[in-house]
Amino acid sequence: MDHNDPTALLAWHIAMGADEAVWDECVDKFSAPAAALQPTTGPAQPQNTRVAQPPQQQPTGPRRVEAKPVQAISGAGQAAAESIAAGCNSLAELEAALKDFDGGLLKRSAKNTVFADGTRGAPLMIVGEAPGADEDRMGKPFVGVSGQLLDRMLAAAGMSREKNVYISNVVPWRPLGNRTPDHAIIAMCLPFIRRHIELAEPKVVLMLGGVSAKALLGTEDGITRLRGRWKELGIGSQKIAALPAYHPAYLLRQPHLKGLAWRDLLAVKRKLQSL
C-alpha cells in the first residue's frame, strides 16, 4: 500500500474495519486542563468552606455522528452509467466500458472487474449479487466455494456454464469486506447489468440472492418471500421469465434449504424446455 496515496490509505482503513466516522473533529484525549495538572501548594482549605467552582462550560469533547455508507458513485453516477451502458451494442463493448468506468472507491479497492463467465448466448442467465474474494482474485463470477456448489447443482440438472449457462453479477466489483452492496452501489451498477441481460438475450434469468432479485425486480421484498415465484423481467423490448432463488452462499449456511433450491432449479429446467 502506498502510504502517500490518500485513496489507498482510506481503502486500507475501511478494509480493516474503520469504516465509520465516530467524531466530527480530532480530540487529544491525553491533554488535560492546566489547572488539573498543577499540584496544590497553598494552605489547606478550612473545613466547611465552599470553594468557588469555575463556570460550567458546554462539553467540547467528541460528539458521535451518524455513520454514512461509503458512496461509490463518482460524477454523474447513475446517469453516467445509464448513458454509457445504453451506448454499448455488444457484450464485448459493455465489458470494455465497465473496465473503463469510474466506479469510485468500490472499483479502486477491487483487484478485477468481474464481468461474466459461461456460454454467451446461452438460454439461461444466472445473475448473482457481487464478487467475493475468490471471484475478485480470478476475475470470474462464482468460482469460490459457493460457485462450486452452484456447478454441482447445475450438473445434477444436466446444465453447465461450459454448455448452456451464462453467469454474471449485479455488482461487478467486490465490495470492501464482502459487505452487502448499499443502494448507491446498486443504483450505479443496475444500468450495466440490465444492459448486460438485454445484450445476452437469455430465455430465462435465474436471480440468486436477495440483492439480485430486489435490484432487478425493483422490490423491497426479501428473498424468502420472492423465491420460487416466477416473475416477468422487462428489459428493453424484451419480456424475460425470471425466477428468484436462494444464493449458494446462503445454502452453505442453511443446508436444510437445499431442497427448495433444487426445486427452483428443476422449475427453471422445465421452463426452458417449454420455451
For this entry, give a set of tags.
6 strands; single chain; 275 residues; alpha/beta; six-stranded mixed beta sheet
Report what the structure shows.
Helices cover 40% and strands 11% of the residues. The protein is globular and about 55 Å long. Helix 3 packs parallel to helix 8. The model is unreliable at 59-75 (pLDDT under 50). By secondary structure, it is of the alpha/beta class. A six-stranded mixed sheet has the order 1-3-2-4-6-5. A hairpin with a 2-residue loop joins strand 5 (231-235) and strand 6. The two termini are 52 Å apart.
List the helices and strands and how they pair.
Elements: H1 6-15, H2 34-37, H3 78-86, H4 91-100, H5 104-108, E1 117-118, E2 124-128, H6 133-138, H7 145-156, E3 165-169, H8 183-200, E4 204-208, H9 210-217, H10 223-226, E5 231-235, E6 238-245, H11 248-253, H12 258-274
Parallel strand pairs: 2-3, 2-4, 4-6
Antiparallel strand pairs: 1-3, 5-6
Helix pairs in contact: 3-8
Would you summarize the structure shown here?
The protein is α/β, with parallel strands linked by helices and 275 residues long. It has a 6-stranded mixed β-sheet with strand order 1-3-2-4-6-5.
Strand order of the largest sheet: 1-3-2-4-6-5
Beta-strand segment tally: 6
Structural class: alpha/beta
Radius of gyration: 26 Å
